[in-house]
Design a protein that fits this description.
Layout: E1 13-20, E2 32-37, E3 56-68, E4 75-82, E5 89-96, E6 103-115, E7 121-126, E8 131-143
Antiparallel strand pairs: 1-2, 1-8, 3-6, 3-8, 4-5, 4-7
Length: 145
């Protein structure tokens, strides 16, 4: 099988999209979880939500996010934490919102971060005041070492 530009076969690539869930059932209390988008455009049925498969790690390489309804011309920081434990922060991105309080960015990471088998994500923003309107996370799966 031919590898992609990232040295991985296409079957290892993962695209995740944020979806709204019941905040009462969310240990992160943001009402957001993630579903995998397949190459044919289909999504995994939910629940369950995306968790890294047993025996694999997920290397996150890119994050796209959009925010709406914040303080016009204010800053907004988007954060990703790993689910479980003390929710360690693994990613932050700060933008300046436009005159309507909206904004977004696509972040490509040089080294990215790794999520262990069984792991998932929590996301939030600071200072808040609006809503996370969209999140896409991209990366690839590989064997645990």
């Amino acid at each position: 099988m031919v590898n992609t530009h990232m040295g991985q076969p296409p079957s290892n690539h993962v695209t995740l999209e944020a979806i709204s869930i019941d905040p009462k059932e969310d240990p992160c209390e943001t009402g957001i979880d993630f579903v995998r988008i397949h190459p044919d455009g289909s999504e995994d049925p939910v629940p369950p939500f995306f968790r890294v498969p047993a025996g694999k790690v997920f290397v996150v390489t890119d994050v796209d996010w959009q925010y709406a309804g914040g303080q016009p011309r204010g800053t907004q920081t988007f954060r990703i934490m790993l689910r479980g434990g003390v929710l360690p922060r693994v990613f932050e991105s700060t933008i300046i919102l436009n005159d309507s309080g909206d904004g977004g960015i696509s972040e490509g990471m040089t080294s990215g971060f790794v999520v262990a088998s069984g792991g998932g994500f929590c996301v939030d923003t600071s200072p808040g005041g609006g809503n996370i309107s969209h999140v896409v996370i991209r990366g690839y799966l590989c064997r645990e070492s």
